[in-house]
Amino acid sequence: MTPPREIVLSCLRGYADRGVFRGFGASEGRRGNLECRFLWHAPEPHRLRFEPGRSELVFVDLLPGVPYPSDMDRELRRFLAGRSSDDLPAHRRIDPAKVSCRCRNRGGTVSIEVRCLDGDYEYAAGKAVKLVNEIFLNFLAGPYDDYMIEHFGAPEE
Asked: Distance between CA atoms of 1 and 40, rounded to whole angstroms?
């Protein structure tokens, strides 16, 4: 049986091999965690940590400058909760029997946490990546253009 760490690493490397991520690197962190860094939606590398003991993938400090409490923080939490809605197409929907997702706001910096509930680590890793992609393309784009300009250097046009 393939260890969960290897399943997650293989899934993430697949995104890098297809050119979704640039500059992908992985190493072993504390307590056997998988620590990954790659360029994707921001000029600075994203950090993704897989904690096998918790069956959790964490996009660490993904969104800076999101005060708690704030309208943006509340809307992000609603957006995450809505990812399990039957109104979404199956390829965009998160099965709540397989994966739970939440955001954690510490000092105005948001991390996204995706926990595998049923041992399907390939599903969990893929949904974690797709969730973050949706955050940048469907949640932030438009209503939070000023935020994207300020924190991620998005063009002002």
From this structure: 31
